[in-house]
Each structure stands twice: as C-alpha cells, then as structure tokens.
Amino acid sequence: xxxxxxxxxxxxxxxxxxxxxxxxxxxxxxxxxxxxxxxxxxxxxxxxxxxxxxxxxxxxxxxxxxxxxxxxxxxxxxxxxxxxxxxxxxxxxxxxxxxxxxxxxxxxxxxxxxxxxxxxxxxxxxxxxxxxxxxxxxxxxxxxxxxxxxxxxxxxxxxxxxxxxxxxxxxxxxxxxxxxxxxxxxxxxxxxxxxxxxxxxxxxxxxxxxxxxxxxxxxxxxx
Length: 223
Hints:
The chain is mainly α and 223 residues long. The protein has two domains: 10-43; 54-65 and 81-222, no CATH class. The chain is built from six helices and seven strands. Strands 5-7-6 form a three-stranded antiparallel β-sheet. A two-stranded antiparallel sheet has the order 1-2.
C-alpha cells in the first residue's frame, strides 16, 4: 500500500515538473525568443505592417480600406470618392452583429458559386460602374479592359492590393479629379508596383493605401 502510494506520488510529481518545464518553455521562453527575433529582424511586420503618414498611423499595409464620400442622410450604400484610387469590391463582408458597441466588419467571401445568378449580376454591375466612373474626356474604358480584380472581391474581402492593370485604368480618372497631369499619376502607379514575391510567387500588385498616400503628397505639392 505504502509502495503504491509512493510510486503514485513520484509519478504525479514528475508529471507536475514536466508540466511546469513545458509551460515555461512553450508559454514563456519560446514566445519571447520568437518575438525578439521578429522585432530584431522584421520590426515593421512584427508590429502589424503599420503605414504612417504625417507622423501618425493611418492603416496597415495588410488590410484594405475604403475610400468613400461621407454618407448623405438616408443613404444606405456609400458612394466612392473618385479622387482616390479604389480597391477591390468587398461583397463578402458582413456587419458585426454580436457586439454592436463597435463598428466592425467581419471578413469573408461571398461563398457564391461561379454560375450563381446573384454573383453574375454583381460582376456585371461592378464592371458597368468601373467603365462609367473611369471614363473621362479623352479616355473611354472598354468593358473588355476591366480586370477581374476590379469586379470581384477577394476571399477575405480585405485585400489591400490591386493589379497594376486596374491601377493604370484608374489613373486617368484620378488625374482629372485632382486636376493633375496624367504622367505623374502614371509614374506613381509604376513606382508603387511590386513584383512577384521572391520573383515567382503571386502576381504583381499595387498597395492601394500606400499609393493613395503618395497621391495625397503629389496633390499637396502641386497645389
């Protein structure tokens, strides 16, 4: 009886010691080491890829933002502020209905099949809007020139990037709306076009937030 109790106590003590050691290693030491390495080698990414303008944080390079006009009274759908470059549609986002104290958006996709009539209608309407909004005097957008990312949302609905083709398509409208020559606006797009990651992963892209910050600086310098 005493021998059995002694063995049980010994095994219990060994288990508790192992639990303590593993808790310290995986719950304290490992997170501190990984955090230290990340802060030392990639401080910007470790802190959420913050984007700053005029000395303050204006967003994250990883999360897309909307550039809309202030809603008018009774307006349900915000209207895009066409002086800015616009990101991808965000049809899959839902409203926060759990804690209504905070105005949050729930990330997500539409989950609609490719042959869904509602999705097809969304794409047609989005393409018509891109053609209408970006056709300016001297430049008319052909529906066949509208890229896929201009009319479809990403899987998260929060894609911060657009294709260089969509950014170039918007350059004419942005130049007209801001009373700027086309050439410097197109140069902004070229300067903010990133290539494939490591040269072979993903597609070339333009970060909309960084592009619009550069646009704001250009407008301020010109005016």
